[in-house]
Design goal:
Radius of gyration of chain B: 22 Å
CATH class of the largest domain in chain A: Alpha Beta
Structural class of chain B: alpha+beta
Helix content of chain B: 25-40%
Oligomer: heterodimer
Number of strands of chain B: 12
Strand order of the largest sheet of chain B: 3-2-6-7-8-9-1-10
Strand order of the largest sheet of chain A: 10-9-8-7-11-12-15
Number of helices of chain B: 12
Shape of chain A: globular
Largest interface: A-B, 45 and 53 residues
CATH topology of the largest domain in chain A: Rossmann fold
Radius of gyration of chain A: 18 Å
Number of domains of chain B: 2
Largest sheet of chain A: 7 strands, mixed
Helix content of chain A: 10-25%
Strand content of chain B: 15-25%
Order of helices and strands of chain A: EEHEEEHEHEHEHEEHEHEEEEH
Structural class of chain A: alpha/beta
Number of helices of chain A: 8
Amino acid sequence: MQNPYIPAPVELIKVVTEVDTKDIKTFRFAFQNKEDETAFQYLPGQFAELSLFGKGESPIGIASSPTQPGYLEFTVQRAGVVTQALHDLEVGAVMGIRGPLGNSWPIDYLAGKNIVIVGGGFAFTTLRSLINYMIDEKNRSRFGKITVIYGARNPGLLIYKDELETWGKRDDINLNVTVDKGDAGWKGREGFVPTVCKEVAPSSENAVTVICGPPIMIRFTLPVFFELGFSKENIITSLEMRMKCGIGKCGRCNVGEKYVCKDGPVFSLAELDKLTKEY
Amino acid sequence: MEKRLIKKEALAGIVGELAGRMRVYAPMQAEDQVLFRILEAGEKPLTDFFNTKNAPKNFLFPRTEALMRFTRTGKGMVRSDEQQAAGDKQEQSLLFGVRPCDARSFALLDMLFDQEKYKDPYYIDKRAKTTVVAMACVHPPYTTCFCTSVGGNPTDSAGADILLTDLGEAYLAEFLTPKGEALLSAFGGSPAGEAEAKQKEALAAKAAAEIASRIPAKEVKPILDTHFEDSFWNTLHQKCLACGTCTYLCPTCHCFDISDEVKGSAGTRIRNWDSCMFPLFTKETSGHNPRPSQKERWRQRVMHKFRYYPDNFQAIACVGCGRCVMACPVNLDIRKVVTDIAKL
């Protein structure tokens, strides 16, 4: 019997400090055993438990895309015991990864549609996975127009800056990066994410929006999309809850009868409407 | 199914002898309580008792359990029990003297730990290697017993491998599963027939009728479906001390925490029972807590047992043993809670 509690050993092969405040880093891992890598079949939107023996585990969304073989990436904010220990690691360190866990962004449902990605702050990680998945040359023709609206409080807090630049040069993504407040060097757009969504005004025709961000951003962004004619089935988001086992047993991450770890973390607004409001 | 009659005075000796061949957990007197413990070879267990203070879930889902071990290397901590499947190897065990409510809790825990997609190897391994010998409650022991309201009954065999029913002169032993039948020769006895089956049937009807405490446990499901937001929850929890005793004694509560312990250069990842009654249970690193007060925690406990478990597994996650009712330091009574909900 396969033991879902046992993490696969991985080696940290690259660390990128994403933000000026230095408390958000992207960690790239390579599996130590080929069979673990083969078994780790994932889709954008899924997460994994980052396992540091002696410290514990932390459930983190997968920031890389399955179209980028050979490694896994996770963008992690330094916040608690495990993430602090992770931030202290140096390239070459070994640790564990347990997953992939949870459902994913509904790739088959998204196929053939125009996709509007809305991200705020550092909740952009599994959206980045989705973008890289969709724009991969093997997949790009499966999806319609791709519009991305991504915002952070200030330019120094934008993550994946190099990638944003690359995406910005492509003509098959409508990329809109915004900051709440710019600085001396900022030449881009200023304004809150909901306002920018209103300005960009993506059509709801055959379109799905995938939204991830702080609750306050989501609260003000949803009305914009309702106004644009998006149905609740076509607004999709991802939930966070405290987790331990990641496989629906330990009992703490349920919202109503659904476990965020195994039935989620991805839900449409229509699905969330049916659940209890306890998250 | 094989049925045997076992002489009353012989039973304790048979179990004592089995303790020489395998690990036997059985009810024993411990000061003024009856608790399960490991029998020494030849030691005789209690056969005449009400019920144990603790539920026997501990033997399939221990309070504290090692999941894996690790050791320090130059590159960080790595797992050191690669060769072993994981955790501590389980030996063949016999769990004797389980009341039908508690045996049924195993059938309920199976639904969670032995699901199609994610199997819990620690639980499943112990479950497979443990033979459960249940003892029917010919006279239900407590006024707080309410098994008949939640899908069980005092002579139920769900979750058991062997069911013993006290027929007066002898025990009727029903060997229900292959695991149970493997102990046929150890239990011995003489063949039982139609007469004993009829005798048991009559006793079963009488025993079920003796359960006076009845609650509308099945009826509250549709009410809970529509009363998540209700003023009822505003006061229910007010006297709760958040001690968690109800969840620790509950045969079906299965929530757990996972944590790492390190001593020198070696460590263990362990899981411990946790409780939805505790504030930290759902508190996130950011400080946000989706269940910020005891109100939400009590609602979760009730909802989990009487709404969510039925949603996910078509079964109420309560066996009616009454332990939480007896042990609550402030007399919060789940029977009254359910009865009150039915009136909403």
